[in-house]
């Protein structure tokens, strides 16, 4: 049986950074990922514009995730967005996001993982977790069947708290979750020649006939011309489905493809769009919300908006509260000038857990706070922090919550993270 000091479940941007940090800190690390590549939402789900790394004119998140983004930009010859480090962070916050080539990012992530010595198991999922005196025995399911490994520390970066549930720890799940999105890009038409007023009227008539839905093209109850101007985007809403488990995620994927097909059929019938083509459809739906852990500390919307600096803060965060709603479209609350929220280590530790951490969008937070904390830059930062805490705990034999904060902060800074 293979023995590890740290096992990371999920290779999205949180898990990727967790595995790299744990390994670079000297821990023998296993990364388990269900897809055939790392990056999660940034790659397979097509949301290849991570943010936000800056606030009020200064960089507030750095470290391993930033390193991988910069390596990707260097390879493609891209510059940082013009708005990066601009002082007016609340105005057009999306212009601070950094668009990356998803394929190159995944390849650079592969290279970084292999160079560091991470044991990567793609096309593999967690099946069981049995707690032992000094760690965990995990049952994994790969293409070659079921097998077991042992690890001192487990980090749940699944995005849906799957490992936390399997381990038997408490999670939080809202009655109604935010809609998912299946990103799609279209081409082979001339935007300048489109009669948008005519198309919008035809769309409203098609909605009335039940042939298409407003959520197929936008986040509100009107025709979203911006979809055509941008030649596609992450602008549909897949509503009423919680993707926390395989059954829910399956329903979401099917509903997402149905949505795109409805939209495709409508657009192809419109003047000027007869030759429209589907240029790219993401490999899976992006999920905004499913489950979070119930941690030793829970970040509330009030504390987030106030920019509370926790005594055990391990990273900054910055994004407006951004709750997608099937009926209202978007619920936004911007941060006051100068406010930079923080994330405490205790929000990464499930209550009453041993040898266990969580990172990414499943960190312990209420619904409104989580709608801001779920974004990729914060996932990268919390993943790196969890990887550092796991490595220190595994090497010293203590629990993750007992890792001395000065040692944790020193390790993070050594790997270029910004600690509040």
What do these coordinates show?
By secondary structure, this protein is α/β, with parallel strands linked by helices. The chain has two domains: 2-176 and 290-414, 3-Layer(bba) Sandwich (FAD/NAD(P)-binding domain); 184-281, no CATH class. Helix content is 31%, strand content 20%. It contains eleven helices and 18 strands. Strands 1, 2, 5, 6, 7, 8 and 18 form a seven-stranded mixed β-sheet that branches. Strands 11-10-12 form a three-stranded antiparallel β-sheet. Strand 15 and strand 16 form a beta hairpin. Helix 1 packs parallel to helix 10, helix 2 crosses helix 3 (102-116) and helix 10 (376-396) packs across helix 11. The longest helix has 23 residues, at 246-268. It starts with a strand and ends in a 6-residue tail after the last helix. The model has no long low-confidence stretch (mean pLDDT 96).
